[in-house]
Design goal:
Blueprint (H helix, E strand, L loop, with lengths): L1 E3 L5 E3 H7 L6 H9 L3 E3 L2 E2 L6 E3 L3 E4 L2 E5 L1
Parallel strand pairs: 1-7
Antiparallel strand pairs: 2-5, 3-4, 3-6, 6-7
Helix pairs in contact: 1-2
Keywords: RNA-binding
Protein name: S4 domain-containing protein YaaA
GO molecular function: RNA binding
Length: about 70
């Protein structure tokens, strides 16, 4: 599991994907989220603006990311 450190209260899902280098661009993140390919805390998430906080887990493309 990869750890992603944030220094704010939360980060939006699409911004997190770009920040953690899961995708090349925000547009790519938007498309992948809309297609239901991203899981947040074990559930499919199609909201690109979903607030991700410390302790959340994001799964994408066979990789797990823990927000610290």
């Amino acid at each position: 599991m990869k750890q992603v450190k944030i220094t704010t209260e939360f980060i939006k899902l699409d911004q997190l994907m770009k920040y953690a280098e899961m995708v090349q661009s925000g547009g790519e993140a938007k498309m992948l989220i809309a297609q239901g390919l991203v899981l947040v805390n074990g559930e499919i998430c199609t909201q690109r603006g979903k607030k991700i906080r410390v302790g959340d887990k994001v799964e994408f493309d066979g990789n797990d990311y823990e927000i610290i």
